[in-house]
Amino acid sequence: MRAIQVTRLGGPEVLAATDLPDPEPAPGELLVRTDAVGVNFIDVYFRTGTYGTDLPYIPGSEATGTVVAMADGVTGFSVGDRVAWASAPGSYAELVRVPVSVAVPVPAEVTAPVAASALLQGMTAHYLVTSVYPVQRGDTVLVHAGAGGVGLILTQLAVERGARVISTVSTAEKEALSREAGASEVLRYSEELAVRVRDLTSGEGVAAVYDGVGRDTFDTSLECVRVRGIVALFGAASGPVPPFDPQRLNKAGSVFLTRPSLAHFVRTRDELLWRAGDVFDAIASRALDIRVGAEYPLERAADAHRDLEGRRTTGSIVLLPE
Ligand code: NDP
């Protein structure tokens, strides 16, 4: 099979297209031929060594495709089924071994590029608005990187729950996309940001800040949140937040800080199917629009990473095997 393999950590150039032996499904696994592969910021953290991994490895954890083989004794799926997943290592490949526990059926009306973008970013947005801070009608929330993969989905889900969304973006094109997703106010990152957010909330601050940018926005996030509000620091696109004095949460107004991960919000099969089902249902009913901002051949995974890290992408991005 063709796959992307990483033999040393580093820049996008370490993502090398190569021929590897076809894998066999181990007990409890499906073997899936991929139709589209999701590219996520976490793939960058593994490639650069921010998160540890053994070498060599095949990057990626999210894709969609068709079941071509199953281990003996596997039930609940059949050869020919369309499935998607958010957490099977080695997904930048034509063939992927997918544990049955993480495979989710894909509704017929959801296209492959959308299915490959829906679960990791969609279920993240879902747990952020339902479980980390359950957004209430009338809340104002702040979404950083509002035109990114998670950002566009998060904005739509928060608006759907009755919130007013303020977002941040870096360009006019991204501003237009964030507004289309439902943001009422779209701001640029600047020293004035916290003042602007306070002005827009009668001096109160927002109920929740959803911050996937990290180092560059974290201090501002603390200045934008209301007394007893919550800062959900769910990523580090600009780099990790440095060590932190908890007393700052007191000064900010008895603020809650959490650093959540999707894995902890899909711990049981029931929870995974609930979140995935909500996301796929919303896509199928057109209540949720997943923007696939760019598609790259699998072989050009390095270009996809360059664009993602270079802030040149909008919405979700996918790799397409030949
Ligand atoms: P995005 O599509 O949002 O891409 C990242 C965006 O972050 C960029 O487009 C850019 O938007 C913004 N950004 C701000 N500063 C920088 C910088 N210095 N370098 C690069 N980008 C920057 O990516 P994803 O949707 O895949 O992920 C968004 C965040 O969510 C990431 O931090 C990711 O790790 C996190 N995440 C966390 C999960 C969890 O469970 N904890 C699960 C899934 C994702 P702009 O130019 O407008 O600023």
Automatic annotation (TrEMBL):
SMART domains: PKS_ER
Protein's UniProt keywords contain Disulfide bond: no
Top-level taxon of the source organism: Bacteria
Span of domain Enoyl reductase (ER): 10-319
Gene3D superfamilies (UniProt xref): Medium-chain alcohol dehydrogenases, catalytic domain (3.90.180.10), NAD(P)-binding Rossmann-like Domain (3.40.50.720)
UniProt-listed Pfam families: ADH_N (PF08240), ADH_zinc_N (PF00107)
Signal peptide range in chain numbering: none
Keywords carried by this UniProt record: NADP, Oxidoreductase
EC class of the enzyme, as a word: oxidoreductase
GO molecular function, one term: mRNA 3'-UTR AU-rich region binding
EC number(s) from the headed UniProt entry: 1.6.5.5
Any single Gene Ontology cellular-component annotation: cytosol
Keyword Lipid biosynthesis included in the entry's annotation: no
Protein name: NADPH2:quinone reductase
Organism the protein comes from: Hoyosella altamirensis
